[in-house]
Amino acid sequence: MRPHEWGTRIVRVTAAMFVLGLCGVASAQESAKQVTWRFDDLAKSSGHATKVLGHPQVIETPMGKAIAFNGVDDALFVDVHPLAGAETWTWEMIFKPDADGRAEQRVFHLQSIDPATGKDVAEERMLFEIRIRDGEWCLDSFATSGGQRLPLLNCEKKYPFERWYRVTTVYDGKMLRNYVGDELQGEGEVKLTPQRPGHSSVGVRINFGGLLQRCDLGRAVYAVGAGVGRFLEDAGGGVIEDEGNDKINDKCKSFDALRAALRMTLLG
Fold first, then answer.
1. How far apart are CA 158 and CA 134, in angstroms?
2. CA 4 to chain centre
3. Helix ranges (DSSP H) in 172-228
4. Is there a contact between 67 and 39 (Cβ–Cβ < 8 Å)?
C-alpha cells in the first residue's frame, strides 16, 4: 500500500472511531438520564413485560399507535419504577382523554416498594390524574416521599376534550410544577427524597378512559416541551414530535452498522 493511502485510511479510521465513541457516550447518557415509554404494544412497555387487565386495545391514530382504555376495567401493570432514585425529574405524557369518563381518573401511577416487606409504600409515589368539571378536564399531579407531599390541582384552568395533550410534571429539587402544554397549572415548594424501586400502573386506581400514546421520563430538569420528548403542539391541539433526542437516536441507532463501516475502512 502506498504511503498516502495509509494516511487516508488512518484519517478514516480515526473519524469512524470518534463517531462510534460519541454515539456510545450519547447512548449511555440517554440510558442513565431518560427513558421513553411508547404505548404501542400490550405485551411490553419500554421493553418491560406488562400485565394486562381488561381489554385495552392498541389502535392507529394520527399520532401513531396508542393504547385505548375503556374507563371501566382496562389497566396495565409494569414491574419497574422508571424514576426510582431520581433527585430531580421531568415527566411528560401524551394522551387524549375521553369526554364520558368518571369525574376523577388516575392515568399513570409510579409506586415504590418496601424491600423488607415487598409491599407498596403508601407515602412514596407520584402520579398523573385528571378531574372532569363542567364538561372539560383539569390536571392533577401529585408526589410524595420522605414525609413530604404536594398535590397540584387547579380546576380554574380547564381544557376541552377530543384533542391530544402534552402534560408535564417537573421537580427541580425544591419546586414541584405541572403543565398542560406550555401553560403552568400550579407549583409549590416541597422536599422530596428519591423514591425506591417499585412498579407502575396505567389506567387505574379510578379507571382512565381515553388514549395514551407516550411518556418521557427524565432524571433532570428539562424545558417544558423542549426537553425529554421535545414535543410541539400544532394549531389543532395535536402533538408533533420534533427531531430532538430522536435525531441522536437515529444517528446512533445501530452500533453494528458503525462497526461494519469501521471494519470496511480497516480492510480497505
1. 9
2. 50
3. none
4. yes
pLDDT tens-place string over residues 126-165 = 999 999 999 999 999 999 999 999 999 999 999 999 999 9
Contact 226, 91 (CB under 8 A): no
Q: What is the pTM of this model?
A: 0.73
The answer to whether 202 and 76 have CB atoms below 8 angstroms apart is yes
Length of the chain, in residues:
268
CATH annotation of 36-244: 2.60.120.200
Q: Which long-range contacts (CB under 8 A, 24 or more apart) does 146-154 make?
A: 146/191, 146/192, 146/193, 147/123, 148/190, 148/191, 148/192, 148/193, 149/123, 149/190, 150/176, 150/188, 150/190, 152/176, 152/177, 152/178, 152/185, 152/186, 152/187, 152/188, 153/186, 154/185, 154/186
Query: Scanning the structure block, which residue is given the C-alpha cell 416498594?
Result: 113
Digit-coded pLDDT (tens) for 169-216: 999 999 999 999 999 999 999 999 999 999 999 998 789 999 999 999
107: which 3 cell numbers?
392515568
Residue type, 122: A
Neighbours of 130 (CB within 10 A): 27
Contact of 254 with 72, CB cutoff 8 Å: no
Q: Measured between alpha carbons, how far is 172 from 218 in angstroms, rounded to an integer?
A: 12
* Phi, psi at 228, each rounded to 5°: -65, -60
| C-alpha pair distances (Å), 43 with each of 67, 90, 206, 216, 217 | 12, 26, 22, 19, 20
